[in-house]
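Q: My collaborator sent me two sequences in one message, no labels, and asked for predicted structures for both. Can we handle them in order? The first one she listed is below.
A: Yes, handling them in the order given. First sequence, followed by its structure tokens:
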Amino acid sequence: MSLEGKVAIVTGAAQGIGQAIAECLASAGADIAIVDLEKSRCQATLEGVENMGRRGIILEANVAKWDEVKDMTDKLLNEWGHIDILVNNAGITRDGLLIRMKEEDWNAVLQVNITGTFNCTKAVLSSMSKQRYGRIINMASVVGVTGNIGQANYAASKAAVIGLTKTVAREYASRQITINAVAPGFIETSMTQRLSPEVKSALLKQIPLGRLGQPTDVAQAVQFLASEAASYLTGQVLHVNGGMHMA
């Protein structure tokens, strides 16, 4: 699953799953554009990429804003000449029961999670089409398939990511661009570390493998989809959830 000579963009790469993806792709040989809202948060990821012997560049962009995304991709093309892999990992949550959900919380989650995925995908399609090669991996979620109490906005955004993935996969297959999604279950990150022991215990009972996933579990799935080993896969959703949902 070598990615030698490839250039990859990873959004939301400052920490957690995004950082693990950036470092995993770098370990396979890719040079990494580390994209996040604030450059200052990305230093650890940059060091991890460079420790793998690969080039890294930090690019600041709010994925929900088209102009910033376009500027980011133009800058990368000017610096490194091509973009081979895009990982749409940037995402936020603003949880709450629907009856009490504020309009701004609904809009913020949709703007980052689905409009951000749309913006970044649109920004790379032209250059990928010209080179007749591309790998786009979108971050969905188990709750985009099953739903989840208190996450109407997040679940809706991730279901939309799956629909976008399948549609763009059909549109660009003739250009040898594959577009797939990874749908993580509950992954051990700073967010899940804040859960109470009681909540964590109840959560684990829903997972047949009996443990939370690790960021590297998701990162290795992304590496597979970015590699030639997955060259005949497009429009698919790869569920990485310990058996919590079996599609």
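Q: And the one she listed second?
A: Here it is, processed independently of the first:
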Amino acid sequence: MEAGIVGLPNVGKSTLFNALTQSKQAQSANYPFCTIEPNEGVVPVPDERLARISRYIVPKKLVPTALKLVDIAGIVKGASEGQGLGNKFLSHIREVDAIVQVCRCFDDPDVIHVAGKVDPVSDIETVEIELLLADGQAIDVGLPKAERAAKSGDKEMIARAEVLRKCKAQLAKDEPLRKVEWDKDEKRIITSYGLLSAKPILYVANVDETDLKGEGPLVMAVREFAAKVGAGVVPVCAKLEAEIAELEEADREGMLEASGLTEPALGVLTREAYRTLGLQSYFTAGEKEVRAWTVPVGATAPQAAGVIHTDFEKGFIRAEIYTLADLEQYHSEKEIRAVGKLRVEGKAYIMQDGDICHFLFN
């Protein structure tokens, strides 16, 4: 799964990306369009449950799940009409599964704001409008084609035309497609057209070091906006996080403590991005490794097994499952089995976040 980091120029996107990926490359110059091709990085999703499992099942290594991040160049007003490098930027957004929008929530006279003033809600609306306009263009092209093809009676094209008409009606209200409850088949069709406003979104409020908890008026304005659209907000001081990322591991704890943080805010961000994507983790645990695996919320046991290997899904027989609470109470799989807490689940079982599993397959 991929999340694209977007925002207006000079809001801190690349600083945040470099901190997330612990990149030590030179920071971009202070002007728009400094990033043309997207940078990509894979970051682990911190999960304290791995360490808790390993207290009782001691492995050779711990393997967290990971999230792929794409740093996409700054969007400006008119991007959908090709302003700046808009078409290229929008095409990069089409390829990701979720959008992480960085909003500038700090004042700094030395950092130019492309709009001339710091107004994070206005920045959010600028990006949203460009996504809506780009979707409108895609539907204006796709709908007539789908309607012509639907006249032949082709069921797939009839379904496509119907979904695109629903999308057009939603966009006519200036509302993003993500606010509609789409069924599985509708989502598949929307994805095939690369419609941008259907993608889940997370707002990152880039704050300064005086507002690390995100309680200032600029962040509160973002929180209020996000609540209306059902999106999450994570306050992050990208500058501070970049400094922390540059430190050796032994020095990070001291800087976190001095800043009043219990962990890098980036841990919170990656977990929230993971949740925004509609993902959850289950675990496998043994002497070789304790490992987190990624599955969509609502995945069945065979689908979860297929994440490990496609043969596991094809030949799925059953899953043996227990919880971390069971492990912490009984201290071993042997004791969990002995007291009857080891559950045997079949093909219809819906995976729960944090399940610890063994899969049996033919």
